[in-house]
Design a protein that fits this description.
The chain is an alpha/beta fold. It folds into 2 domains: about 290 residues, 4-Layer Sandwich (Metallo-beta-lactamase, Chain A), CATH 3.60.15.10; about 190 residues, Rossmann fold. It is about 30% helix and about 20% strand. It contains 16 helices and 24 strands. Strand 17, helix 9 and strand 18 form a beta-alpha-beta unit. It is globular. The structure holds zinc ion. The site of zinc ion has 6 residues, from helix 4. The site of zinc ion (ZN) has 6 residues, from helix 4.
């Protein structure tokens, strides 16, 4: 008998954590964070306490308390008495968005994580440019005896253990004990997204992951649903993020509309888009080509393009960081030495202003800083994230500049407040007027009702469980045999 327990990702958008058990084989599909659940209790200034994180997250029902699953440096330190051998045979990761992957950092490093090559590169980007621990687990709460014979705390980074990452090939079947897995690439707003078809002892199950048909890889999604149609599915776990919406716009519209705005802009074009959405980066890259401008990217994107261009599977798909249509923006470092007199400081100190992973870009021939942006406003499309708006102070956009916002619109009060703050920045620097006219040009990573109807029709599964949605009622109208589950609920095949 096969069962699926939904520890997240139902009656919610994200936080997917589906535990599949089949004849003694146990796998997790995704292990993500729910923004809604974390937002109920935590904020920027109050999080789970690092020294007590698992206990905190169990107490708030944010993480399921399953023995043998979590890293033992944490369970020992938090006195959870969890020395059982792990029962989890694998994690199948659909993609490297935090609502699907965030809590992998809490898992035991020996649990194999099966993912696409692109997901691995994106997780490496998170690890190398931030504090995440997706690919490398860093032991915490270790003590040692120092030279004076006293106990000292080891720094967290002393013991690094590589996680067991298993990269699968798109479309190529593999087995985890009794379960055969078919990973099928689908179109979404980050590279390397896969849906899964599982062949278990009690039948076949598809998990759509997050998908759409209106991006640059619509054919991938079509191939997945066709494959579902051929697989005599007993069950489909079908996402429904935008099941209540009807919206025919596509990623190509983003490129076209942006091209038009850029053509109409005399001075600097500033843009904001999701930092790891390389298909969106492509839209702005192509819009830059169309308008004879350079796209100015930030260091994290430069690093991501470097990782992708080093892989034979992606080197022709996305531009290299030193592409002739790209400039790399070097921001002020920790001491802002970039514009200081280096005879008083030194080249060496300038390098030390930047983190290890950032340094090599200082020597790239296409590296620029705020002075170049100020001087060449008509030639550039400047990427500026919501977290680096201070760049506007240095750049001083000329009158007749514009801002294209290619990010999701606010859907809660907190986001509305944040957006108000962003507007204040662009108004302050004369990019938008008091009427606040920035250009909102965005398409979602998720299909609308028409697209989901097509998935459900062609997949032709006997039963459907809605996931990644707060609008189950729409699925009920689209499929004759819908089963809904609550959090921690189990469905028996
Ligand atoms: Zn998601």
């Amino acid at each position: 008998m096969t069962s699926i327990t939904f520890h997240g990702g139902v009656n919610d958008i994200g936080g997917n954590k589906f535990l599949v058990e089949d004849k003694g084989t146990t796998i997790l599909m995704d292990f993500g964070m729910s923004f809604r659940e974390e937002g109920q209790f935590f904020s920027q200034f109050m999080n789970a306490r690092a020294s007590n994180s698992l206990v905190d997250l169990f107490a708030l029902d944010i993480l399921p308390n399953i023995p043998g699953m979590y890293r033992t440096d944490y369970t020992e330190h938090m006195e959870l008495e969890d020395d059982e051998e792990t029962s989890i045979d694998a994690v199948l990761l659909t993609h490297a968005h935090v609502d699907h992957c965030k809590y992998i950092s809490y898992l035991r490093p020996e649990i194999p994580i099966y993912c696409s090559e692109a997901s691995k590169l994106i997780m490496q980007n998170y690890d190398d440019t931030g504090t995440d621990q997706y690919l490398t687990h860093k032991e915490k709460f270790e003590v040692y005896t120092n030279r004076n014979g006293e106990l000292s705390k080891k720094q967290g980074d002393d013991v690094k253990i590589a996680r067991n990452i298993q990269v699968f090939e798109d479309g190529k079947k593999f087995s985890i004990d009794s379960i055969d897995v078919e990973p099928m690439p689908v179109d979404h707003s980050i590279p390397g997204v896969d849906a899964f078809i599982l062949h278990t002892s009690s039948g076949s199950i598809a998990n759509t992951g997050d998908l759409r048909f209106h991006g640059r890889r619509a054919q991938d999604t079509e191939n997945f649903v066709q494959r579902c149609g051929q697989s005599e599915l007993d069950l489909i776990l079908c996402e429904g993020t935008r099941v209540q919406k009807a919206d025919p716009t596509t990623e190509y519209d983003v490129e076209d509309k942006s091209t038009k705005i850029i053509n109409e802009t005399e001075q600097l074009v500033i843009c904001g888009y999701p930092i790891r959405d390389l298909d969106r980066l492509m839209s702005f890259y192509l819009a830059a080509k169309n308008t004879n401008r350079y796209l100015v990217i930030d260091l994290k994107q430069a690093y991501l393009l470097k990782l992708f261009s080093a892989s034979s599977s992606f080197s022709n798909l996305y531009p290299k960081p030193d592409d002739k249509n790209i400039k790399i923006f070097i921001p002020r470092g920790t001491w802002s030495l970039i514009d200081k007199d280096l005879s008083k400081f030194s080249e060496r100190l300038l390098k030390m202003d930047y983190k290890e992973w950032q340094r090599e870009f200082l020597d790239y021939p296409n590296a620029i800083d705020y002075r170049d942006v100020t001087a060449h406003q008509k030639e550039l499309i400047f990427y500026c994230s919501d977290f680096n708006l201070q760049n506007l102070i240095d750049i001083k956009p000329n009158p007749n500049s514009s801002y294209i916002r290619s990010l999701t619109e606010p859907f809660d009060v907190e986001m509305e407040l944040k957006e108000e703050q962003i507007k204040n920045w662009f108004e302050r620097f004369g990019v938008i007027s008091r009427e606040r006219d920035w250009h909102q040009i965005h398409v979602s990573g998720h299909g609308d009702s028409t697209q989901l109807m097509h998935v459900i029709d062609v997949a032709n599964a006997k039963k459907l469980i809605p996931i990644h949605t707060t609008h189950d009622e729409y699925h009920l109208r689209m499929h004759p045999n819908v089963h809904t589950v609550n959090k921690h609920g189990t469905y028996q095949m």
